[in-house]
Amino acid sequence: MRTIAVIGSINMDLVVGAATLPRPGETVLGSEFRVVCGGKGANQAVAAARLGGRVHMVGCVGTDEYGRIARKNLAASGVGVRAVRKVAGATGVALIVVDAAGRNLIAVAPNANAQVRVPRRAFDIVVMQLETPFAFPHARCFILNPAPARLDAIRSGARSRRRPLEGVDFVIPNEHEAKSLTGCGSPARAARELRRMGARRAIITLGEAGVFDDSTGRTHPAIRVRAVDTVGAGDAFVGAFAAAIAADRDDPIRFAQAAAAIKCTRRGAQSVPSAAEVDRLLAHRPLRKERFHE
User: Fold this and answer.
1) Virtual CA dihedral for 275, 278, 279, 283, nearest 10 degrees?
2) At a CB cut-off of 8 Å and minimum separation 6, what does 14 contact?
3) What is the average pLDDT across 222-248?
4) What is the pLDDT of residues 10-35, one digit of tens each?
């Protein structure tokens, strides 16, 4: 099995559960408060490791207690942490509100994540996001989750390339990130634009509507579950997809969808199932007809 390096953010999530999400200027009363490990990079690393991948995390934590907890949590989840550096200052923090339907609002203070650097060594598979400074890695397979959607950061890291996404094997944005990067509201048009920007393959997650795959022009229908917390669902998808690619699974998108669906039934950004749990779900959920997009 090929090794996965996840280069990205490590945060502590401060989560308030509430009946509804607050509007601008509004205060809502919460029903619970939790402090859990998060950060898109750490979430994806934990997901890939729990789903059978050999994973190493490249990132930074601060000198505070949050940093110690986050690093210990990664190691306990089976993620290699030798490349997780301790730097002066605070660990990254995310403030999150989750409503009764599992929807969320998130604000992030990067803190130590601003000091993450992309290693010069080569890796089998690299997974990256855009919560840390961006540069192109040396990888046989490069998976980019452009979240948050920062085209300026991508262009800055691609100065020596003809196209900003040249060298990206799989770009996996959600529908909002895809529109922000391309200006295209249609997943099919956005995917074509991402390909024109240099990505070899574009996969766009659409929440309850499923996942659009530009290699087939079809939308994989979502796996329906009763969601209690969607925080980290996209990260579960990306981590599961990387684990499936590393293991040469036949249908990495469906595997990733199942992992993300199960995660949504559990609270916490890193509440990711095992590969055995995903396989059991898929065995009892026959494929529904995919939709074709012009």
Assistant:
1) 180
2) 33, 34, 35, 93, 94, 95, 96
3) 93
4) 999 999 999 999 999 999 999 999 99
The CA distances from residue 122 to 3, 84, 131, 278, in Å, are 11, 17, 21, 30
The C-alpha atoms of residue 136 and residue 198 are separated, in whole angstroms, by 13
Bridge partners, 164 (sequence order):
none
**Model confidence pLDDT, tens digit, residues 114-167:** 999 999 999 999 999 999 999 999 999 999 999 999 999 999 888 778 899 999
Tell me, what's the pLDDT at 201?
98
For residue 292, name the pLDDT band (cuts at 50, 70, 90): very low
> 11 forms bridges with which residues in the sheet?
38, 92
What spatial distance separates the first Cα and last Cα of the chain, rounded to whole Å?
Answer: 36
Active site residues: 235
CB under 8 Å to 103, separation ≥6 — which residues? Answer: 21, 230
The CA distances from residue 65 to 90, 136, 194, in Å, are 9, 31, 40
| Per-residue pLDDT at 240 exceeds 90 | yes
Residues 267-292: b if buried by 16+ CB within 10 A, e if exposed: bbbbbbbebeebeebbeeeeeeebee
3-9+39-90+113-292 CATH pick, 3.30.1120.10, 3.30.365.10, 3.30.40.10, 3.40.1190.20: 3.40.1190.20
Task: Tell me the one-letter amino acid at 189.
Answer: R
Query: What DSSP element (H or E) covers 219?
Result: strand 218-220
Domain extent listing, the chain: 3-9+39-90+113-292
Residue 294 has pLDDT above 50, yes or no: no
Exposure string of 98-135, with b = 16+ CB inside 10 Å and e = fewer, is: bbeebebebebebbbbebbebeeeebebbbbbbbbbbb
pTM (2 decimals)? 0.91
How many angstroms separate the CA atoms of 232 and 226, rounded? Answer: 16
Q: How many CB atoms lie within 10 A of CB 221?
A: 17
